[in-house]
Design brief:
Blueprint (H helix, E strand, L loop, with lengths): L27 H29 L4 H24 L12 E3 L4 H10 L2 H20 L10 H23 L11 H20 L3 H4 L1 H15 L6 H5 L17 H30 L5 H20 L5 E3 L1 H10 L4 H16 L1 H8 L3 H23 L6 H19 L9 H8 L2 H14 L12
Antiparallel strand pairs: 1-2
């Protein structure tokens, strides 16, 4: 079991040089590859959001590129704030930040119907709402006992598993989805990662996902499956320009985004709990939860100012922490610095963006499974009485079942459809509400005598 001193002055000071201590700063030769490993798994997901929104809004190529660079720059800054902390802001845990997918279904119609400045204005207001939730989170901590937070984490992993297989097949919408070369590349990365993780020692085990990605990338290069043209045409330097796109505030845009931002805090809480459960074998402290959610909100406000979309902890990283056992927040901060540089140096970002989806799929599939495993580990500490089993069962049913049956809510407005389609949000609401309304007293199941 990994332990941590989470109070007093020790909280902000490196204590030992182990990767298994949250406040440790390992040697740079070890920390740099581990930091890169943390961000590579989320890189494509981070830049996909601006690509989707820019495509829906029919933006020109140069503005799309500008938004991609902004997404990387903002994610780097947000990761540094989350992992290192600024005053009460930041969980000071090994958490990688990035652009949230959850807001895409709501922001696309806003960007198309009212313009991109309206989408950024709504995102800024959503960030303020998230920051306020984080500020007052200690008051509402009773809403998130272990049965609720553990269920959150299981839902996260379960809902991400199909995404992992989509990557393995070549990515969403790929013309050659499921082609043999995609399946073989994903399998190669999976085998290398699992082999090193289970049979390697020290740095070989800790960097197993990174080595798996490198092996997959080299294999893809050998067979001519990587397009290097984007690297050659990318600029060497691109400085962020605040308010370059502009910000507008429309009530019809702000209300649904604020509502979604408040509910999305449940996802952030689940990621924080999953990180401490999977890497530190403990529940997060109230200060970590509050600071983490506040960092999501403040980072989202910063993102809107710098032409990017709402930020949230990336669930891939929860799986990475559980898989490797590397919990040093300074390692993740190094990854954040790399993201920031990728936002300033387009060629660096282009190199990482050239990694085939199938190569990423072989790695993230393991990580998503590890998220669910971390949630199961958390739930193993609760009593499996009738009350708790109903909370877990109904919440999982809502999270997994509703997105699979879109016809059930096809007549609702688009904003409500987007909230339900996320799966995690209705599942989280079921868990919170059932925990509040079901009777507290119950007998633990026991064998009949």
């Amino acid at each position: 079991m990994h332990t941590q001193e989470s109070s007093g002055d020790n909280r902000d000071r490196p204590t030992v040089r182990s990767t298994h201590d949250v406040n440790a700063m390992p040697p740079l030769g070890r920390a740099i590859p581990l930091g890169l490993q943390h961000v590579l798994a989320m890189f494509v997901g981070n830049v996909t959001v601006p690509i989707l929104i820019a495509g829906a809004a029919d933006l020109p190529a140069d503005q799309t590129t500008f938004m991609i660079q902004a997404a990387m720059f903002v994610a780097g800054v947000a990761t540094l704030v989350q992992s290192l902390g600024i005053g009460p802001i930041g969980a000071r845990l090994p958490i990688v930040m990035g652009t949230s997918f959850g807001f895409v279904p709501v922001l696309i119609p806003i960007a198309v119907g009212m313009g991109l400045p309206a989408a950024l204005g709504a995102a800024l207001c959503g960030g303020i709402a998230m920051a306020l939730v984080g500020l007052f989170l200690p008051v509402f901590r009773f809403l998130f006992p272990p049965v609720v937070t553990g269920t959150f984490v299981v839902m996260l992993g379960t809902l991400l598993m199909p995404v992992g297989f989509a990557y393995w097949g070549g990515g969403f919408g790929a013309a050659d989805f499921g082609a043999t070369h995609h399946l073989l590349l994903g399998a190669l990365v999976l085998i290398v990662t699992l082999g090193l993780h289970q049979y390697g020692r020290g740095i070989w085990s800790e960097t197993a996902p990174l080595i798996g990605l490198v092996v997959g990338y080299v294999a893809a290069t050998s067979f001519g499956l990587i397009d290097f043209s984007g690297i050659g045409t990318a600029d060497w330097l691109s400085l962020p320009v605040p308010l370059a796109i502009g910000i507008e505030f429309h009530l019809a845009a702000v209300l649904p985004v604020v509502l979604l931002a408040i509910v999305t805090c449940a996802e952030s809480i689940g990621d924080i709990v999953g990180t401490t459960a999977g890497g530190l074998d403990r529940e997060p402290t109230p200060k970590e939860l509050s600071g983490g959610v506040m960092a999501d909100g403040i980072s989202s406000v910063f993102a809107a100012i710098f032409n990017a979309f709402p930020q949230i902890s990336f669930s891939q990283n929860v799986g990475m922490v559980a898989l490797t056992g590397v919990v040093s927040r300074y390692v993740v901060a190094i990854g954040g610095a790399f993201l920031l540089l990728a936002g300033l140096i387009p060629k660096l970002g282009a190199i990482v963006s050239s990694i085939p989806n199938s190569v990423l799929g072989g790695a993230v599939l393991i990580m998503f499974g590890m998220i669910a495993s971390a949630g199961i580990k958390m739930l193993s500490h609760i009593d499996f009485n009738k009350r708790n089993m109903v909370i877990i069962g109904v919440s999982l049913s809502a999270a997994v079942g509703l997105p699979a049956q879109e016809g059930l809510y096809a007549n609702l407005n688009e904003n409500l459809q987007a909230i339900i389609e996320s799966g995690l949000i209705p599942g989280a609401l079921f868990a919170i509400i059932l925990n509040l309304v079901l009777p507290k007293s119950d007998r633990v199941f026991r064998d009949d005598v």
